[in-house]
Write the structure tokens for this entry.
Amino acid sequence: MLPETIKWEDKKLTLLDQRLLPFELRRVVCESAEETARAIKEMVVRGAPAIGVAAAYGLALAAANGGDFDEAAKLLAASRPTAVNLFWAVERMKDLYHANKDKPNDEMCRVMEAEAVKIHNEDIEINRKIGFYGQSVLPRTGAALTHCNAGALATAGYGTALGVFRAAAEAGKEIKIFADETRPRLQGALLTSFELSSDGFDVTVITDSTAAFLMSRRKIDAVITGADRIAANGDAANKIGTYSLAIAARFHGVPFYVAAPLSTFDLKCASGADIPIEYRDGREVRELRGVKVMPEDTDVWNPSFDVTPRSLITGIITERGIIRAPLAENIKKTIEEDR
Ligand code: MRU
């Protein structure tokens, strides 16, 4: 059984340290917003919904610890730039704080803690719904390809893209899963393979450059990935390499689905060009888990995310069903209906 990604215990946040998986199972304890922001920045916790949940707890801690709440919110919001779930959770907690800050301190802290727990529990429920709708795109027996880790480890539990595979298995379907290793941080090789094999799935890791050849040689029924931010027109940012995968899928006639909660949509971004992309240290590329794989002074370009244009997306699987073309119109409709 997979250990929980995020736990709230004795009024402390404990995070499964994803930098060490699958070789070591260790938890990092956060007792302040500052410690939580550091854990997000250093990728102890990663994956768009998971960092949103962690930030919510970070602000429950900020409220309990006293000090400048708005500064704590700013610090958390500055921890990673692309996943909009982080900003969504920070705004939700900030609004609640300002609506309750004049109440007796005990009561205000209780409200803040309860809201973070609610965001945590809601995420699991939402992922189950994503799984329910998403599994319908998979055949009774078949194969699918995923990228990075959009699983229980990237969320409060169950996962988005991997939640679709879980729901398919629960519906009695037999799906062989291929996982891209996902250079440079290897979330596919280290996390997705660990998560899926721990839960008894048939999972095979391929190098990122193998994906197109795989599609040409094996019947792949669908590519399903997560997302970090989806613009109003349907363009979707996700882990670097997702865009190439979508191009390969289109060339080979393989349906390409994005699985994400509505909190991943950012209607303030008209298109993918407006999505802020995180650029990370070149050392992530020059080294593979601490081992040098090129000369130290090699120039590298290391965007952590890319944007898949909506024209390559077959559908976006959400907790309110699968959004299909015309994406801009249907995204707007789905979000309005959800309010
Ligand atoms: O850099 P990471 O590991 O946080 O990137 C994670 C991804 O790109 C996931 O696919 C995305 O956040 C969706 S997680 C359900």
Summary: The chain has a mean pLDDT of 97.
